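Co-fold these.
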Amino acid sequence: MPRSEFDLISRYFNRKSFIREDVELGIGDDCALLSTEKKRRIAVSTDTLVSGVHFLPDIDPADLAYKAFMINLSDLAAMGAEPAWLSLALTLPRIDEPWLQTFSDMLFEQLEAYRMQLIGGDTTRGPLSLTLTIQGLLIEKGGLTRSGAKKGDGIYVTGTLGDSAAGLAILKNTVTISDEADKRFLIKRHLRPQARIFQGKALNGLAHSAIDISDGFISDLQHILNASQCGAHIELSQLPYSPALKTYSNHEQALRWALSGGEDYELCFTLSPQYSHILENLFQRCRGPEVFYTKVGEVVSDFSGKITFFRDGEPVSMKISNITGYDHFDTYRRE
Amino acid sequence: MPRSEFDLISRYFNRKSFIREDVELGIGDDCALLSTEKKRRIAVSTDTLVSGVHFLPDIDPADLAYKAFMINLSDLAAMGAEPAWLSLALTLPRIDEPWLQTFSDMLFEQLEAYRMQLIGGDTTRGPLSLTLTIQGLLIEKGGLTRSGAKKGDGIYVTGTLGDSAAGLAILKNTVTISDEADKRFLIKRHLRPQARIFQGKALNGLAHSAIDISDGFISDLQHILNASQCGAHIELSQLPYSPALKTYSNHEQALRWALSGGEDYELCFTLSPQYSHILENLFQRCRGPEVFYTKVGEVVSDFSGKITFFRDGEPVSMKISNITGYDHFDTYRRE
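Predicted complex below.
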């Protein structure tokens, strides 16, 4: 069994080494935080996408550009940062001009939408892959880290869970959805996720912790719990499903997608109960499409980071090993 | 014929798009420059290295870590910036622990030597490749861009030229060097280049323009000339050769390596004659191993960016097409 990428990173790269005073937050959160002056810090995050590992080799270049950008942007959302700069390293097997045209058109469309600038990168020949390094700014307010969750916090997610995994299953022909509109919706949720950048900014200074759901709800929540040294109670009946997934006949599969499907790029955050009443107003004032949020559980005192599941208030036993998150070292890999 | 990476980048990514006020210098130089406050700016540069394209597939992981770091650091040197932060995206075909141990040991050794911090990155499975995004700081003084060369400037290079290309040819068994010490020296110059970070910092605020020699002396000088809208006179008899290359019997090959071999990671810079007398003193005060410099030509008025070659003061004709620089889309590629 391959180690997960988390083990790998922490084992080899999370060493005690030279510590710079201007690095406020290094490896281990959604972004690093670099301070350049008292009231302004830079949030930095890097993502690599490899053909056949993170996306299907025949992906439309517009979908690829869109998704690579959104995945990277989602890390800034989870930090509550204002998007600013992008570096793009693009490795291509050959120079395919229509491909590049479509790819770059979509990339620049997204950059403009978020008032961002491409500041550099590298272009090389090799097996198709992309590495994006995004940078955002945090002014005055603290940034949404993973380590601030407190006992009693509500656990919230934005939007709905599991749609992206369902869309991927449809694309891979491992499930069939008869309703055409539902099918299109789920595929779109997989190919065109939406980074919750405005919600992240709104939550900055208010939420105690946040993460974007890239690996799967449980897996990402676990990162918050481990970093915050807390446990969680999760109420399964509260998990937010889209109408398309709600009507899907295999409920157990839908639950698995919601808990561990990954690539939803919704935000999971924890918030003190005293602020729960202002959330609705806060989210309504966000720019961009309207996004709802759902309280799915509560942070509890548990040093070991354990998650306990409930259904309609009754504890249920779930094997965590059956619902572990998305592993970039496995998914999409062809036999 | 594939387009060179320069054409590719400028064609697809150097568009007029959203312009941020805090981006002082975007795509097209060694680093982007980002301003976060009046007197402090950030220099950013990204490099990708792909197995079989930028390095031999059986490279020692210590050599790979060293070289990837130095190539990326060299961009900061060419900007005169103080090294600060590194993001590393590592794509690996499998998890090979001894490989990772050796690779990360060398990376951290270099990070410590330059008082830098690894601030993040990504680890994914796929064909072996690395993308490094380095960031450095520029305080007060302007940064060494490519566009400031002026008529009358001396054209200088640090160290010696062509050694790295000779070392690569030895590794690829396309040339034979009988002297064992020379052979080892040339291979080392290829595998263990030295970014001229201290010299770059010393030149900041003094040199009119600078670039690091990654693609080949002529190719990189051409970038300065194009950006500065000047021409150059180059005196071939002044090109600095190492003792190992000076004694190599095929003088024409040695010249080709020096002009276009690439991967020397020396600095090429232009300097007003009024400052030439302080160069020696300036370089002697640099930290790190002693590095000499050589004046190899002069910037002349020529809007078209033409390079004219001389040997012992007499003009010689050289076909530029025969000496074009290192192309990342060709080198190392196996049949």
